[in-house]
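In the previous chapter we treated chains in isolation. Here, by contrast, the input contains four separate entities that must be folded as one system, with a combined length of 490 residues.
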Amino acid sequence: MAAVSSPVPRRERLRRATLEEIKRTAHAQLAELGPAALSLRGVARAMGMAPSALYRYVDSREVLLEELTADGFASLADTLEAAFAAGDPHDHLGRWLDVTRAHRRWALNHPVEYTLIFGPRVPEGGLVDNRVAAELKRSVAVLFRCMTEAIEAGLVDTGQVDAGLTPTMQTRLRAWAADHGVPIGPAGMAVCLTAWTQLHGFLSLETFGHLPPALGDPADLFDRQMTDVFAQACRTIAPRPRPAG
Amino acid sequence: MAAVSSPVPRRERLRRATLEEIKRTAHAQLAELGPAALSLRGVARAMGMAPSALYRYVDSREVLLEELTADGFASLADTLEAAFAAGDPHDHLGRWLDVTRAHRRWALNHPVEYTLIFGPRVPEGGLVDNRVAAELKRSVAVLFRCMTEAIEAGLVDTGQVDAGLTPTMQTRLRAWAADHGVPIGPAGMAVCLTAWTQLHGFLSLETFGHLPPALGDPADLFDRQMTDVFAQACRTIAPRPRPAG
DNA sequence: TCTCGCGGTGAACGCTGTCAACTACGCGTC
DNA sequence: GACGCGTAGTTGACAGCGTTCACCGCGAGA
């Protein structure tokens, strides 16, 4: 049943399996105890091996956490991409809701990962793992794609939005777009920024338990906010007077 | 110069002073090392006393952190209240900007406290410190006040906003308002929720270093978002001509 | 003046991350 | 098939952590 010539040597295969088990075990401990309580010794204990043996696979506790963070980002990005791919390409608002709902569901199902991901980056000035940055980009890229396609479909009057942006802002937003290699103008990026901050603000407050319990399950309020943030970008097609700004 | 009869007995005064020094020292270590690295032994070392002596003043490391969190909340609430009080009562948008800018400045100046405050609440199921909850309420109360006064001034067409809310949402929002003893209807609370999530989303991403560096100092983008969130609430009413600012 | 309690000390326990020395085993090579 | 090397794993140790305990001395109140 096994392939006659395994593509990766046995040694490497075992190594990968062990590393995988380490990450799985660490992830489990993380999920039930929180990031602060993750201990290499605990992982080693659960795996039935000596603590020092872990250092054959992991440089340090910090690096392991970083690795798990990157995995979390990847999982989120996968989820968002899947939601985007499964959405109706012609129903831009619907697909936007699909994606943001998927984001919310992921956050609620993976509170610890969400903490790792969107909690404070290490202030050590330590260069962040490249993989973390890459996965983050992949994640926001889905958001960008929702917006670009809505713009291409003529849903957003970008000229109108641009008019509300100072030259400085336009420069900043252009730099951001360039940083992601995304062909969106400042207007689209401004909408993306608003959408992203609102999405993240809601989820961060909710998953971290800062929304008042009296609100109950705020799924519908979340939907409303996500609808609004999209609709506001599109409302400028039939421009209503904007009182300020 | 000192009062002949001190209002608090000397013993109690010393105790309070020591506790204050503990918190001050802990705060300093927190600011430069982050919450994870705060150690009671380090605090004791910095104060030149034995580690065990701290336990005469503090129940545990966890409780000390909780105390510092509550202090952080109080500081933020003070800042917001001061900004509100100093604002022009007739310029609702301007005052809203004052308050949110003060919030942002506070967050940027106190990143560690912001982490403590808006990071994940302990998942221990442990009852959160009452003081923390109280100070949080005091903080959002300023936001509510901005909104109530804008509503009273007729800036927000609450009926229009209400129309976009399902009965379930209205119930939820009413419960939230009741929880805070605030005389705002569902429409106002919906606006508050949007404003709060957007405000917090932006600041959380910024202070935690998740906004792309290419954006530079996004003060103007922050202003724009805060203006928009307020303006959108007022959009449905005949727009008072208001010079952008 | 006596006594009690409070602030403070030092030692200890068990936990943590991490490192160094050492062992055993599997693989590739002669 | 024997050899040697690299690698996974071991034991043991070090320093630091939170926390507890037994003890001690001084100041305040009776």
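Residues 69-234 of chain B form a domain with the Tetracycline Repressor; domain 2 fold (CATH 1.10.357.10). Chain B has two domains: 1-58, 69-234. Compare these points with the single-chain example from earlier in the chapter.
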